[in-house]
Amino acid sequence: MTTAISAAASRVLRRVLAIKISNHNRHPSPVRTFRTCIANQTFRTAIPTILKQHLPMKRSFTSTISASSSSSPSPTSGISSDDPNRQVRVSHILLPPGSESTIEDFKSQILNGTATLETLAKEHSTCPSASRGGDIGWIQKGRTVREFEIAAYSTPKDSFSTCTTKFGVHLIQVKEERIAIDVGHCTVQELSEILSSVNVDQDLLEEEYQFVDVREPHEVDVVSLPYFKVLPLGSFQEWAPKLSSLLDPSKKTYVLCHHGMRSMQASQFFVENGFRQVYNISGGIDAYSRGVDNNLPRY
């Protein structure tokens, strides 16, 4: 009987300790650890070229564009189209120059319910996004050519617009919209406490946390931390298309590299693709070895 009570008390104590740290993370305080900082805005332009290659419509191409918006009625989302933090997720069909009448025909088919943009994009679009049914993902202001941006951001959710660039004629649909979320910062001391909470209760890995190391395999071989999934930034094009099967966008996501630069780039990519709570480990594993565990190798 005593043994059973002791075992039960032990389980309760483990859970209380974990909840204490977990709740603290949910309610930041300047006195306690795990405060959420405003992301360093200079990193917004640091997404490497490899990311732009994966998301073709985010390339800063220069073109002369005439844009016209033609929207169908759609339910309001409660997000103002003038909100500077608004982001939109866009799908489109790209046809060669001079295909305006075909684009209008496609739009009519979609509005009449006889076809979908996804099907038409796969069959006819000349953009690499055709393989994804025209989906080019979330776009931010200032990250696409200005006139294409104007067309997309003037279009309500679930509605359509058209624009013409030197690449051809676009039929654009706004699939989703959201308020932009910044990347948070996490110090190595805060990370140490979080990892300690996971050691106490590993159910937190299923319920709340996930950890990503974007260093290259040869770096991970030198030194690593427990619970981190290795997704090398150099292999971005291999794992990015499978992101939704590798990570859970609803969990708190902590991203690590050597000094904090590559992890910030990856963190921004995660945020742009729907992850709601992303934290870059400031100073990376080098800072962890200097400030938390001096026994860890440095390189």
TrEMBL record:
A single MF term (Gene Ontology): peptidyl-prolyl cis-trans isomerase activity
Alphabetic keyword roster: Isomerase, Rotamase
Biased composition regions of type Low complexity, renumbered to the chain: 62-81
Superkingdom classification of source: Eukaryota
Ranges where the PpiC domain occurs: 85-176
Keyword Isomerase among UniProt keywords: yes
Gene3D superfamilies: 3.10.50.40, Rhodanese-like domain (3.40.250.10)
PROSITE patterns on file: PPIC_PPIASE_2, RHODANESE_3
Location of the region described as Disordered in the Swiss-Prot/TrEMBL record: 62-86
Domain Rhodanese: 205-297
Annotated InterPro entries: PPIase_dom_sf, PPIase_PpiC, PpiC/parvulin_rotamase, Rhodanese-like_dom, Rhodanese-like_dom_sf
Pfam name, any one: Rhodanese
Name of the featured protein: Trypsin
